[in-house]
Amino acid sequence: MPELPEVEVTRLSFADRIAGARIESLRMGKPLRWPLGVEPERLVGQQVLGVRRRGKYLLIDLSDGLLLLHLGMSGSLSFGQNLGPPGVHDHCDLRTSQGVLRLNDPRRFGAVVFADGENAPVAQKLLGRLGVEPLGVAFDLQQFVTALKGRKAPIKQVLLAGDVVVGVGNIYASEALFLAGIRPTTRACRISRVRVAGLREAIQNVLARAVEKGGSTLRDFSNAQGESGYFQLEAMVYGREGAPCRVCGTPIKAIRQGQRSTFFCQVCQKS
DNA sequence: AAAAGCCCCTGGATGC
DNA sequence: TGCATCCAGGGGCTTT
Questions:
Q1: If you write DSSP's letter for every residue of A219-234 in order, what string do you get?
Q2: For chain A, what is the mean pLDDT?
């Protein structure tokens, strides 16, 4: 579910409320994608310094270590004082002096991993080869051009891979390519500099807009306060197979790329 | 080095 | 109503 906007919206919905809290206990439920890596007691008594985001990971800075959190495909967080008893898909309860942070994740592709610091091997394994942050100043045009020059794969899949630029998942890849007028199947290395510049802006715009709208709630996403997102209502192509293009009226096409669905307009995205 | 496939897992929608 | 099949926001790992 969660791409950069959903993860960022989630972060914004509880970061201030959990900052400064003291950890009282950590309960882990069914196994997630990776083990926590330490005994839960390791965290007890530590203070939460803040919450950052790197790509689709949330980084909870502790007084002695770091908690890496990933929502996978179906994860969502809740933070509150009265969450009630954990349900069958609540696989992590981090109880703090300011409330409980709970991960609900039916498919369990998500993860909660403890690392001694950002340079610890486990943190490096997960964060080490992530690409540039698309909403940061480091998302430089020349670097983007150079990176894409070295890729013969379809641009949609290069965006999804996350080693050039992070945070762009299946929804926003289709959306950004539509805004840039680029066909998803075009080889990354074949896109002209001018069009790469347009793609960079499209990525920035679509992600920023999605954050503003609270993310996309397709099935059941909500932020840590339980609020839904609304970006899906203004999606130009994602999930709109057969529906008229909002620009030219041509029916939107759906194809498969690397076992994921891709949506585009064959008129607005000629190449 | 890059690209392509394969999984991990549960649940909802669809079709017979 | 019951059951099989397909699909879903991700991404690390293995194999070409």
A1: SS---TTSPPP-GGGG
A2: 97
What's the CA A239/C1' B13 distance, rounded, in angstroms? 14
In the chain, the amino acid numbered A20 is G
Architecture of domain A141-264: Orthogonal Bundle (1.10)
| Six-digit token string for A75 | 């994860």
* Distance in Å, residue A131 CA to nucleotide B10 C1': 30
Where are the domains positioned within chain A?
4-127, 141-264
Name the nt closest to A74 by C-alpha to C1'.
C9
**Choices 3.20.20.80, 3.40.640.10, 3.20.190.10, 3.30.70.100: CATH for A4-127:** 3.20.190.10
Q: What is the pLDDT of residues A17-42, one digit of tens each?
A: 999 999 999 999 999 999 999 999 99
**pTM of the predicted model as reported, rounded to 2 decimal places:** 0.97
Of the candidates A94, A87, A174, A161, the residue with the CA atom closest to the CA atom of residue A130: A161
Q: Which amino acid is at A217?
A: T
Nearest-angstrom CA–CA distance, A169 and A215: 12
